[in-house]
Design a protein that fits this description.
This protein is mainly β. The protein has 2 domains: about 1-95, no CATH class; about 110-390, Neuraminidase, CATH 2.120.10.30. The protein contains 4 helices and 31 strands. Helix 1 packs across helix 3 (about 80-95).
Length: about 400
């Protein structure tokens, strides 16, 4: 219903403020090159104008426009004038037309999944692992309102795609098991048995590590083993037609990529890397041996140092920024920073010591330690302001 109202309002807005149509006629089916009405600034919520006209024709009955008057008429000929229509549209734009994002095709970003996938976004909702409630799955509006508990499982590697949330249930024994649940908390299902980590849900497939690399359909069927990297397959990034990951096996240590069907496995380097982020033509990572942030091209060439960060960890690349920590928890450090992907403009975001940086919308979600047995989830704006406890 919301999508219908959105289409209706978009078309009415265009009509009112351009004022040029006579009577809406039966329309053709959508074509690939048909014009679009854009939604928000990111291009979400695109609607074909011809489809909008068709919906209006069915719901309103008649839309009659001319240069001086608008009448949104029902089948009996009752309608409203231009002034009332503008007031109605103004209300709808403010209250209804938030242009929510379409359902995700990718459940979370690889950068977040490197850090436990503690938070994910779809539309106006943030889904998160609540450290104040033993890591159980919650959701809230992006402004922090309307918090709702979804399950009683310790939930990590959160992916949200359409009506489903996919996650690792760490309450289900060592290593956890792969589960899914509807976004309203219904239809909880176990998708696979045994351990799982670095869950990436992309299109109709779930990619994950359980010693080796696996994938299966989103309904749990058709499990496929993609690699033989037992027992250390870490930091999975599923990007385009490739899976990038690290192998911690002493004999085969390095960074690899492999096609999403398990073919064409390639070794990119021999380094022990952490928190790899594949963004565009680059792989960003930090080397725990020297604490420096590096990048290399996606085929393993052109290795470069990024900036002058030292003792770096927890990197998460979003747009033109690398969000990361400097220092280590056991030394009382690990404060959040950010730096441009070209190595410029290094900024300290907070004096608090944090870990597991997830970037969701306009916020950084991260863990802050209360004691050695408890970590709470906090969030701060991307510039480090407005530090808030998330519960």
């Amino acid at each position: 219903m919301k999508k219908t109202r959105q289409i209706l309002c978009i078309a009415l807005i265009l009509a009112v403020f351009t004022g040029a149509f006579a009577v809406i006629q039966p329309v053709r089916a959508q074509e690939e090159d048909a014009p679009f009405v854009l939604g928000d600034a990111s291009g979400n919520g695109k609607v074909d104008i011809e489809d909008a006209r068709l919906v209006l024709q069915h719901l309103v009955g008649k839309i009659i426009l001319n240069e001086t008057q608008l009448a949104a008429a029902d089948v009996d000929g009752n309608g409203v004038g231009i002034t009332s229509a503008r007031l109605i549209l103004q209300y709808l734009v403010g209250k209804i037309l938030a242009f929510p994002r379409e359902a995700n095709k990718v459940g979370n970003t690889p950068g977040n999944l490197m850090h436990g996938g503690l938070a994910a976004i779809q539309g106006d909702w943030i889904y998160y692992s609540n450290g104040r409630d033993e890591g159980r799955l919650y959701r809230m509006k992006a402004d922090g309102s309307d918090k709702q508990k979804i399950n009683n499982d310790h939930s990590l590697y959160i992916n949200v795609v359409g009506d489903w949330i996919y996650y690792c249930n760490r309450s289900d024994g060592y290593g956890g098991s792969l589960y899914r649940i509807k976004i309203d908390g219904s239809s909880r299902q176990q998708v696979s048995y045994g351990g799982c980590s670095y869950i990436n849900v992309v299109d109709d497939w779930i990619y994950y590590a359980y010693d080796n690399l696996y994938r299966r359909k989103i309904d749990g069927s058709n499990e496929q083993k993609l690699s033989d990297d037992n027992p250390f397959c870490w930091y999975i990034n599923v990007v385009d037609d490739w899976i990038y990951y690290c192998n911690r096996n002493d004999e085969e240590m390095g960074t690899y990529r492999i096609k999403i069907d398990g073919s064409d496995k390639q070794k990119l380097n021999n380094d022990w890397l952490e928190y790899i982020n594949v963004v565009g033509d680059w792989i960003y990572y930090n080397n725990p041996d020297d604490g420096i942030i590096y990048r290399m091209t996606t085929n393993g060439d052109d290795k470069q140092i990024v900036g002058n960060a030292t003792l770096s960890s927890n990197i998460n690349v979003v747009g033109d920024w690398i969000y990361y920590t400097e220092g280590f928890w056991y030394t009382g450090g690990s404060c959040p920073y950010r730096i441009k992907t070209d190595g410029s403009n290094r900024q300290k975001l907070s004096d608090d010591w944090v870990a597991s940086i997830n970037v969701v919308g306009d916020w950084i979600y991260c863990l802050a330690e209360v004691n050695w047995d408890e970590c709470n989830l906090y969030r701060m704006k991307l510039d480090g302001s407005e530090n808030q406890l998330v519960d």
